């Protein structure tokens, strides 16, 4: 390699400089730091030779990834139960028993945090039909604690490698989803939403359930080993929350580590309130429309809620409202004069 490769404006040299700075962090475990520094020194020697480009780039990516993992970086928890209750009320209508269970769980977490003890060993799993609010509740828990959150979907997950990474002896090796997200978030204590753990592909279910046990067991997750990273990472500060449509496909060993919260279905009356007071304002905001730009006559809400028959969740209701709002958005852009009001005479224009 010629001297221009070592110029300060060279991207490769910039990455090397960044890695060296990252390796100065006191948060990196000493034995890992020594291992990475040895590899870095070897890599710099290789830079002056030819024919190294592909392996060099792989090694550079590995060093950059490992040296920037958040071994000692965590966000500060907000330990305020009243605030948590307000957030749950603000984002979720009804679900009284579910909210109470979550607040009880957070109470135990708060007490343990105040005493400097580990988090509760049991992991929350929200179980219910599609659209019953499981995922959004997990996001509310993260907001209540002031933590970052990442969602890892298990639907159709086809390989353990997607969770645990792949050894670097393989040509296309890369970290697993979990370590990627931890790296990208930059903290070691996010909320990790394990979404739809019952929908894992049949042929890999046993292996993936084994990884779930490893993630959720406090006796194991303090030294989680991603095959790419090849160094134990402490996941004991992570708050895992799982969701499932049902638990029949979840292994017994995983169930032993879960605290089940059943999500009830919504009545039509509850869905009218949710649609009018929660989903419609949100859909208008997402579409760039002012809150008072449109009105749905109160007598028409049953048709908005149930245009195609009964649905225990609110997913269909959300889609219906978004469809209505999109039609209003088009009218606004095309210059149609308001007010935009859904009545018994024109509702057919907005709902198929």
Considering the chains and any ligands shown, give keywords for the structure:
352 residues; alpha/beta; Rossmann fold; Helicase, Ruva Protein, domain 3; 3 domains; five-stranded parallel beta sheet; two-stranded parallel sheet; 45% helix; globular; disordered N terminus
Set out the fold topology:
Blueprint: H1 11-22, H2 30-46, H3 53-67, H4 81-91, H5 96-114, E1 123-127, H6 134-145, E2 149-153, H7 161-164, H8 177-185, E3 191-195, H9 205-216, E4 239-244, H10 252-255, E5 258-262, H11 268-286, E6 294-296, H12 301-305, H13 315-333, E7 340-342
Parallel strand pairs: 1-4, 1-5, 2-3, 3-4, 6-7
Helix pairs in contact: 1-3, 2-3, 4-5, 4-6, 11-13
**How are helices and strands ordered from N to C?**
HHHHHEHEHHEHEHEHEHHE
Mean pLDDT: 87
Query: Treating each run of at least 4 consecutive H or I residues as one helix, how many helices?
Result: 13
Distance between the termini: 65 Å
Please name the fourth-level CATH homologous superfamily of the largest domain: P-loop containing nucleotide triphosphate hydrolases
Low-confidence stretches: 1-8
Largest sheet composition: 5 strands, parallel
Number of strands: 7
Indicate the radius of gyration in whole angstroms: 25 Å
CATH topology label of the largest domain: Rossmann fold
Give the count of structural domains: 3
Share of helix, binned:
40-55%
Beta-strand proportion: 5-15%
What structural class do helix, strand and pairing data support? alpha/beta
Quaternary form = single chain
What is the topology, as strand order, of the major beta sheet?
2-3-4-1-5
